[in-house]
# Entry
Amino acid sequence: MIREKVKELWKRCFSDSEEFTEMYFRLRYNNDVNMAIQSGEEVIAALQMLPYPMTFGGTEIRTAYVSGACTHPDYRNRGVMHELLSHTFVRMLHDGVVLSTLIPAEPWLFDYYTRHGYAPIFRYAEKEFIAPCEAPATGAPFTLEISDAYAEKSYEYLNRRLRGRPCCLQHTEEDFRVIIADLQLSHGLIGTLNHEERIVALAVAYPLEEGGWRIGEIVSDTPETETLLLQHICRKLGLPSIRILTPPISGNSHPLGMARIICAETMLRLYAAAHPELELSIYLTDEQVSTNNGYHYLNNGKYMNSAKRLPGRHLALTIGELTEKIFAASSPYMSLMLN
# Structure
């Protein structure tokens, strides 16, 4: 019952195709990840907390990606979404989530989510690959495979390469199947470059409405195998060039997504361990997760908190400012999201 009510609200609020909506509610939605507010029998606001692992500080943390956040038009500007997010953060904390992430659907929403403790830490770069005039090397030892179907070896290669990135949202096998379903709706493709039946480069490519194609993610063993794969894809699709989304490049990046610390203690323990040179005293305020409020101390790789202020100067930070500070030098990245 609640599933159908949330789906109806989704259709009212978003302009997604019927095919995408059905795919999302078949493969991505379930009542366990859904949060909603009702007025009588009607769902007036809803969102889903989609679980994603994330590499950080040499380990892996639990994150929850806020998807499908929407409010019924008749109930907007009444604080309904603010209330829903507050309940969602408490639920995330209870579930052991350390960090919440999202991609704002509209530019103005960056300011809205900033007011709820999120910081714009995820960025991306875009470059253009110009295909050379000469044909790429064909046959042994390298071969190209093009597919829009799930393949275990493709997921295993992508997973291994993404986990090599030090601060990056990861995709489980279940999520990769959702990516494939979305790829099929978009008429996209996965291209793999193989050497003796072993994948040495992989790209996920989507056609653009305005023409041309874009690589949403590319991973490879070496820069040379990446270039060779791009050459093969351009030749296969008859393209003179192709656009590529990549992790941020210094001085040339664009805003993509936001994050909010849910459990400050866990995040600061990891941050302290990763930066043993830091000595920091923080007075933290969080308007929606009260357990984060208080005094936090980092020294020689160790962390502690205190209900009372200890002697010395303290840095006063909001939860959003702390999120930005912790990730400032990490160049966090996310890709292949259903945004």
About this structure: The radius of gyration is 22 Å.
